[in-house]
Every structure is written in structure tokens, then in C-alpha cells.
Amino acid sequence: MTTESLPKPEEVGTFYDATNDLMTQFLGGSTHYGYWTGPDDTSTFEQAADRLTDILTGKLGATAGDRVLDVGCGQGNPGVRTAIRTGADLTGISISARDVEVSNARAAREGVADRVRFQRADAMELPFEDDSFDHVFALESIVCVPDRVRALKQIARVIKPGGFVALTDFSDRDAAANAQKKKDLEEVGESWHTAPLVTEADYETFAAAAGLEVVEVTDITLNTKYTEERFYGPLREYAENNDVPPEITQVLEIAPSPEELKAMSDGAPSVGVLLIVLRNPA
Q1: C-alpha torsion sign, points 39, 265, 79, 218
Q2: Exposure string (b/e) for 169-185, b if CB count within 10 Å is 16 or more?
């Protein structure tokens, strides 16, 4: 992926403005992968997506009165859910104006608007004072940031000493296999406005550059690998019978075939998902 093709904040915002109302219908109400316990897990996508939200945000240890920042809030389900489960005050940001609108409406509908709020902001230029938050999470949003280190430096700036950062990112699990399909992966990345894949080892470098400590880097691919098949299949069927935004049409044109998706669910995908926990040194 060239510098020119790296995700640009304004283009990411435009993409999600156009697509998220539809995509969340097929992603269990959230905008991130689901977490299944195995091939026999019959959980709905909503249940699997909420499970990943709970696993990730549970790493923070947030409690009532804490201030939590949700970087890349999607349409607000993870943030509202986390605030209700923990009692924390939550601020969520998105580069998508539509996501912010829908998220604030969700907070009002769930009766937590007094301590849950969402605003439009860029993860690389957080509009908050130093040490504003106790904890931060970023569910699959750092994949849409062109400079992960810059975003992590901003997070390190706004989080209090001793605070935790939990996030998910897309990983290169099989360098040889991914090198063979480099062009296809770049096309997928460009259609979704995502940055290049990372490895587990990269987060040691990223964290050190941002002044954070690595607590955990866990490959959760074998739990999230069912996501593509359960997302693309229903979305394709819907698109065959309904008008969809051109951005969705582009995504589906270069998405894996049903046969490839089945193979991904049954096997060990070369592109995976990492769950990362960092800590701001006390």
C-alpha cells in the first residue's frame, strides 16, 4: 500500500457516513467482528459482537465514576453497552458525523445521555486535555488510522498514569501466503479504507514509541474467523434485491467468494485479529 492509498480521515468519515446504517444491520448492531467460542457456537452475530465488546472492555477494569474514551465509536453500541455494564462515564469519538448522530440518539434512547456522549473527532488529533480519561478502548478502529503510532501517542497523552488501553487490530498471520495475494489484500484495504496489516511484534515497537507498556497481545483469530462468512453472505443476498450505496457495491465486488469465505471459516486465515492491552506507566 502506497502513502497515497493510506486511509485519509475525511475519506474514512465519508465512507462510514454512507455505509454504517446498512452495515450495522449485518454486524449485530456494532461495527466490528464477532467472537464465537468455536464452530458449534450458534450465537447470533449480535451476541458474538457483544461478546467481543465485553471481552475487550473487560480488560480495562473500569468502574463507576471512571472516565472512559471510546476511539472510533461506530454507531454507539459498544460505548453505551460498556457504560451501562460498568457505570463509567463515557465519551466516544468518530470521524463519521452520521455515526456521532446515531450514537447520541442511542445514548438518549437507553437513558444514559447524562454520562455518555459522542462527538466528531480525529483519533490522530484528540480534542481533549492531558490526563482526561482513566481508560481508553478502540474496537477495530485503529485499522482505519494511517499512522498507528501517532494515534497511540494521542491516546497516551489523554490517559491518566496507570490507565489501560484495549484495542483490536488486523494482523498478518502468514507472511508467505499474504505476499502471494498482496494485490488482492491492497484492494480490500483500499475499499474498506484500512491501513496495512501489523504483526504481534509490531506492538512492542508501537507501544514504546508512544510511551506505553504492553500488557497483552493475543491472537483471537480462531474466534473471530467466522465473521466474514456470516457478514458477507447475508449482505450479498440483501444487495442482490435492494439498492445499496456504491461503497457497498465496491466492497462486495472484491470480497472473497462464498467458497473462499467457507475455507476461511474452516481453516486458519492468513489475515487475523489481535487483541492488545497497553498501559500508561504510573
Answers
A1: positive
A2: bbbbbeeeeeeeeeeeb
167, β-bridge pairs? 138, 276
CB-side exposure of 197: number of CA atoms within 13 Å? Answer: 20
CB atoms within 10 A of CB 54: 14
Contacts for 92 with CB less than 8 Å, ≥ 6 apart = 69, 70, 73, 76, 79, 100, 103, 116, 117, 118, 119
Tell how far CA 224 is from the center of its chain.
12
Going by C-alpha positions, the residue among 141, 143, 90, 140 that lies closest to residue 118 is 90
| Chain segment 2-21, per-residue pLDDT in tens | 555 689 999 999 999 999 99
**pTM of the full predicted structure?**
0.95
pLDDT in tens, 198-213: 999 999 999 999 999 9
Contacts of 274 (CB under 8 A, 6+ apart): 168, 169, 170, 171, 198, 200, 203, 217, 218, 219, 220
Per residue, the 3-state secondary structure of the chain, as one string, reads CCHHHCCCHHHHHHHHHHHHHHHHHHCCCCCCCCCCCCCCCCCCHHHHHHHHHHHHHHCCCCCCCCEEEEECCCCCHHHHHHHHHHCCEEEEEECCHHHHHHHHHHHHHCCCCCCEEEEECCCCCCCCCCCCECEEEECCCHHHCCCHHHHHHHHHHHECCCCEEEEEEEEECCHHHHHHCHHHHHHHHHHHCCCCCECCCHHHHHHHHHCCEEEEEEECHHHHCCHHHHHHHHHHHHHHHCCCCHHHHHHHHCCCCHHHHHHHHHCCCCEEEEEEEEECCC
Q: Give me the phi and psi of 167, to 5 degrees please.
A: -150, 165
Other residues' Cβ atoms within 10 Å of the Cβ of residue 209: 14
